[in-house]
catechol O-methyltransferase (Penicillium canariense), 260 residues
Amino acid sequence: MSTIAKPHAPEPRSYCLDGREVDLLHYIYGRPDIKELRNNPQKVLAAIDEYHTNHNMLMNIGGVKGAYITGLISEHKPSTMVELGGYIGYSAILFGDAIRANGGKKFLSLEKNPEMAAVSSQLIDLAGLRDVVRVLVGSSDKLLVELVRERKEIDQIEMLFLDHWQELYLPDLWLLEDMGVLAQDKSLLVADNVIMPGAPRYLEWVKATPAQKRAIVKKLNVHPLKPNPNLVYDTHVPQFQTDWGKDGLAITKIVGEEVV
Ligand SMILES: C[S@@+](CC[C@H](N)C(=O)[O-])C[C@H]1O[C@@H](n2cnc3c(N)ncnc32)[C@H](O)[C@@H]1O
């Protein structure tokens, strides 16, 4: 019996990438009510929730934190929202639907793993959100540079959802600070999983004053990144009970910039 070599694919972990994401597609497309799911984002999300509850847990934002963020979308009404880490498309469907309902135009879902991007693209299509949600395959830092500097598709971040791996939150935020796309009273940052598994370096930065951030930059070797410690952030961390345990979202507004 021969095996198929997969030299480029990431290693499965105990909670993801073990085949469950493709199994989810079989589950959804094998449902007797599949026709009712077409063009119905809420029913697609409910079907994903059912799979998560009855079959294999999925590392989606889920209903509790998801509802809090859709509340923020209704309040801020971004025309474009960007997410870092799309996985199987749950947050892209939930937030893309909310963006559309609030008069917005675009939700960009940046996902490094092409298999996950393929799964999410199918589910986004099924939900009827193809015109609003675009899945971009690649690593967040490279795609952000492409979107901002090369294609000039984004000149300001209105709302950003950070939900890839926690150690990447701070370098990606520094990249956005360097590219000058965070604007006072306009940009809103939402970071998931800041309590579990936790994003201590990101939380320290978004909660620090400019003086404290200047001290952090002096202490660390940040090269080749160029953070802007002079941005003044206002961050709060609402907490939630989720299926995975207690967690929090870091909600950050840009409230000013110190001139030094
Ligand atoms: C927690 S999951 C995202 C969950 C999704 N936002 C949701 O709530 O439905 C994290 C995802 O980030 C992706 N990821 C990890 N590193 C990345 C990177 N550098 N750029 C883009 N995506 C990345 C992983 O492949 C994984 O699919």
Summary: The longest strand covers residues 250-257. The chain has one domain: 20-257. The pocket of S-adenosylmethionine is lined by residues 59-61, 83-87, 90-91, 110-113, 116, 139-140, 163-165, 168 (CB under 6 Å). Residues 20-257 form a domain with the Rossmann fold fold (CATH 3.40.50.150).
